[in-house]
Amino acid sequence: MKKVARLFLVLILLLATGFVRVSAEEALPPRLQKLADEAYHYYSSRGTDNFFEAVQKVKDATEFSEYQETYYRACAYEAIYMFEYVDRQKGVALSHAIYHHAKEDKSNVGMYFATFTLGTIREQSGNYGLAEKSFLQALELKKKYLPDESAAPCYLGLCEVALHRKDYEAVKEYARLALDEPKAIPMNQITAWSYKCLARYNEGDSLGFEEAYKERAQLMSEHGGQGGLFGELINVYLAKNRKQWQVALQRTDKLIHQQNRCSQKASIYEHMGDLKQALYWQKQARQVIDSIQSSEARLQMNEFDAELTLTYAENDIKEQQLAKEHLMLASGAAIAAIIITFLGFIAVRRKKHMKTLQGVNSKLQAAYDQLEETTKAKERIESELRIAREIQKRMLPHVFPRRRDVDLYAMMTPAKEVGGDLYAYALIDDMLYFCVGDVSGKGVPAALFMAEVTRMFRTLVDGKLTPGTIATRLNHALAEDNEQGMFVTMFIGLINLKTGHMEYCNAGHNPPLLDGEYMKMESNAPIGLWSEVEFEGEEVDDMHGKTLFVYTDGISEAENVNKEQFGDERLQALLKQDLGDARQTSETIHKAVADFVGDAEPSDDLTKMCIIMK
To answer: What's residue 310's pLDDT?
Structure first.
């Protein structure tokens, strides 16, 4: 398996949260339990209208009752279902409603479910790094405020992130932690064993897969045999693990999601050696992939199609030539008395073969023409992206202040032609405004969003506002009509260069390091998700003699060829040393990350800003 379709995680995580049970609450009354069971049923069967009607009944019955956990769990169900299956913008709006409601009620239970929901939405959007952070934040909220709540759903979310990264040891470890949860419901346990099955299959551990499948099957037998959609996917892998390819093909027809069904068929036909069928189903899978793709990805698929067409055409020519040679050898070995009899037959066959070869040559020429057209399109796109990259570079400051009281330097290296990271600063009298941000996603959409954020930041700075107010106004503007659900994490700061006093606001961003120590602060929400969020500012009394290093997660999450991350500890160890001035510090960190990554493909933009107060 290359990866598990994101669609499956949605159902599994929601089932894993235990919608039909309570943990810290007492057992639900029979009437309320019936409503919860009904919502669970419609979610599983994807009966959209019935589901929303049923979940609304659960919310109405619990919103102002003592069953707050059930209420917020129902809200989480609703938001994630809406985001994945109906309308992404409305799904984000519903997730905002959970956060807003929890904040008004000062509900730690609500904040847990709001954070968990955000993590799930991030995972569905492919923002695995941010999803991981949300799930870890949800775990902290659970440990602090909800000791009776099961942590299994968060561990299962982390399983999916690790599975996407092909970190199978981490998948197994998070699955173990989910199983060790004392209040993990049967669905939690079944899902955890499902992830163990997938990890072991991908590791090529056939016996380990069978052992994990046996444990999972035992749990399903004990608890009614409900494995859900994930269960059928695991059954496909069971047949693949046993090399029962025809059985595996039959089981794929039971998979509801078309993309997953097509990709599984492609994989099975590839194992069977039927490459034409594998190619057909691979094309079908690509047709149902999310239409929001980068031009680079579309170009790569076109090139792949052209290469395959070319390969098939060349193989057809070779087969025809081989057939012709066999025929000539057979004719040469014939008895001399019947050579004349077969001359006419050979001529006819040869004419037929030549006609076939002409057809194949036409296909081959068409393939070459398509490849040439694709190459030209690629060159044109690359040229446009180079121009876009230069424009983006010019948007970022390249001249930095080096005064007696402050030294500042920043740099950004995009993972692709254009990036979604940003930094900016403005020096107004003795007031230094600065920011570092990381836009969700990559490529051109992220770059456009980055440009808008940078422009708005510079405009708001001219108003001499506080960092918290800047974050709030940025959020209100960017969240409006945000159909794609894009957002940006930001650290915004303001230093009075005379007094050394610093005000700052951290909007869902990585905590910076102050003199080599990670700052403890309010994380707030990212900017652009929920329009009504009021961001809170914090402060440091005196920055004189201190070094502030602000960065994006592309630094700490940079991976080498062994999929090992650079990590927070390596970064901190470097910054505990005296690396020189702001520029030398930034360049030293950049080189350390580049040396660590080596020949591995960069996975994210790398941005860092260093400020040294004197």
So the answer is: 42
